[in-house]
Write a structure and sequence with these properties.
The chain has ten helices and eleven strands. It is α+β, with helices and mostly antiparallel strands and about 325 residues long. It folds into two domains: about 1-150, GAF domain (Beta-Lactamase, 2-Layer Sandwich); about 170-280, Beta-Lactamase. The chain has a six-stranded antiparallel sheet with strand order 3-2-1-6-5-4. This is PAC domain-containing protein.
């Protein structure tokens, strides 16, 4: 209970670990209590927290993981390692333990989901025996600390992933929003908020159609194609072209792409929407269409004139032939 309060009262694990170990130091009357966590390759361990006699050691001290050291044994074998008297055993003491002059100790693996996340070590300055009940309670405490450590790691990884994804979405040159099934904006990058002259904090939590279309009901209820709605219904990507208007009433043509976000069970829980201003492209298309139409009209006019000229030439030839015939007849 006290360990739980120590962790709950602190905002971060590294701030909670030391007061938690202080409680263990006093409760088990130990000379030194430390937590060591292995690296990814299981070659070295780092003492992330040390209380009691440290003799110049600070959190962050590293040591090789070895079967000659009880902390290493606890991590490698995933079982408690006990030395009742270093002077009578074959175990070697780590530099930290040797500096402090420990004579006995126990290191217990901290396991979460069958994985060792570290070792909790209780070290003493004189030979000491450990009974079964004491070992059981120490094991429980070790696993409690392991859960907190793993939770902190998971939160750190989640925060790193969130920061990475946010960085990617912010780096995209298009407007990007994430919309849930209620059409509420869960995320908006800076490009999107700037396009709609809003702060990001204003956009998040609002309804997408309020910011995008300035309307009080979804665009699909106004007869427009809504890619987000289609994605939420079908789970398939969708695209559409929408026409927005600026403050002067000038049209802004936007390509809207939407993609599904699934939960672990395959259900569509949200959609990612990207918006890309295609006004320049559409304006160019309109200009080209206008030019083609003008050229077609000119062609029709030119061809029509040419045909008329040919008809006039034929009429002139016929008249000349008729005139020549009349002259010959007169002679």
């Amino acid at each position: 209970y006290e360990l739980g309060n120590a962790f709950l009262s602190a905002k971060k694990m590294d701030q909670a670990m030391e007061p938690a170990l202080e409680l263990l130091l006093a409760h088990y009357d130990a000379g030194l209590v430390a937590v060591a966590v292995p690296d990814m390759g299981m070659k070295e361990m780092e003492y992330i927290s040390i209380v009691g006699c440290t003799k110049g050691f600070e959190p962050g001290a590293r040591a090789a993981i070895s079967r000659q050291d009880i902390a290493g044994i606890a991590i490698i074998e995933r079982c408690p390692a006990i030395v009742t008297d270093y002077s009578e055993g074959d175990f070697t003491r780590s530099e930290l333990f040797e500096r402090c002059g420990v004579q006995s100790g126990i290191c217990i693996p901290m396991t979460v989901d069958n994985s060792v996340v570290g070792a909790l070590c209780f070290m003493y300055f004189k030979p000491r025996q450990f009974d079964t009940a004491e070992l059981w309670y120490m094991n429980v405490v070790a696993n409690i600390l392991g859960v907190y450590i793993e939770k902190e790691r998971s939160l750190e990884k989640l925060e790193e992933s969130r920061a990475y994804i946010t960085s990617v979405l912010e780096g995209i040159g298009d407007g990007v929003i994430v919309v849930d099934r209620d059409l509420k904006v869960k995320f908006a990058n800076r490009v999107f908020s700037d396009e709609h002259d809003r702060f990001q904090e204003e956009v998040i939590g609002g309804l997408c159609y309020e910011f995008i279309h300035g309307k009080d009901k979804p665009c699909f209820e106004n007869g427009e194609k809504c890619p987000v709605q289609e994605v939420l219904e079908t789970g398939e990507p969708s695209t559409a072209e929408h026409t927005h208007y600026d403050e002067d009433g000038e049209p802004i043509y936007v390509q809207v792409n939407a993609y599904p976000i699934f939960d672990p069970f395959g259900n569509v829980v949200a959609a990612v929407e990207t918006t890309f201003d295609i006004t320049g492209r559409v304006s160019l298309e309109h200009d080209l269409e206008k030019r083609v139409k003008e050229l077609e009209e000119f062609y029709d006019m030119a061809v029509g004139r040419e045909l008329r000229m040919m008809e006039l030439k034929e009429d002139i030839v016929k008249l000349e032939e008729e005139l020549e015939r009349l002259r010959n007849k007169t002679k």
